[in-house]
Amino acid sequence: MGIFNRIFKVGQAEAHAVVDKLEDPIKMTEQGIRDLKNDLDKSLQALAEVKAMAIRSKKDLNTNREMAKNYEQKAILLIGKAEKGELDAAEADRLATEALTRKEEAVAEASRAQTEVERFATNIATLDKNIKKLKSTITSYENELRTLKARARVSSATQKINKQLSGIDSTGAVSMLEKMKEKVAQQEAMSEAYGEIALDSRSIDDEIDDVLSENSVKASSSLEELKAKLKQQ
């Protein structure tokens, strides 16, 4: 129980220190819970056995009380018969004495049974209290174990991510990006330069064709129309 009390105080430095020293705290905790459940099964079996003995003791108590009462009634009846002359006085005394002896034996058995009933009642109360506490402890540990497993998964994933991130060369990545920017800028400049060269290298025929192109003809027609309009005004 002591190791569990230390393991499951989540958030306390002592618990972290203990967990750090364990080879596999989750597996050890699971085994501990299984052990507790075995203890619970044994406790439940013991409780059932004690309750069975308590039931038998109660039956013995009631039986012996009834026997004591019956023997006393028989002794009274025997004495009554002797007083009425129905039975010899000496014989009545002998039989009444035997009946009272049986009565005392039954009273003694009833007293013993009463003591057992009280003792078993105390044992049952103690066992029942411990079983309830054990059940509550198991439930608490199972809840803590689920939390521990979740934290372990998160911690493992975080550790892997951090490990991967720690392996990245940030300086190298930045240098690579700068080289890519420089390469793209150079390609853009080259494209612009080739465009300018293409414009400068046009032949006379290209220029004539541009003038005589459909757009140029349309522009000339529009210009003539505008001149004629101005003369009319």
Order of helices and strands: HHHHHHH
- Sheet bearing the most strands, described? none
Strand content: under 5%
Straight-line distance between termini: 114 Å
Radius of gyration: 54 Å
What's the helix count? 7
What level of helicity do the residues show? Answer: over 70%
Describe it.
It contains seven helices and no strands. It is mostly helical and about 230 residues long. It has helices at about 1-5, 15-20, 25-85, 90-165, 170-200, 205-210, 215-230.
Comma- or semicolon-separated keywords:
233 residues; mainly alpha; 91% helix; rod-shaped
Topology:
Blueprint: H1 2-7, H2 13-21, H3 25-84, H4 89-166, H5 170-200, H6 204-211, H7 214-232
Helix pairs in contact: 3-4
Outline:
With about 230 residues, the protein is an all-alpha fold. It is built from seven helices and no strands. The longest helix has about 80 residues, at about 90-165.
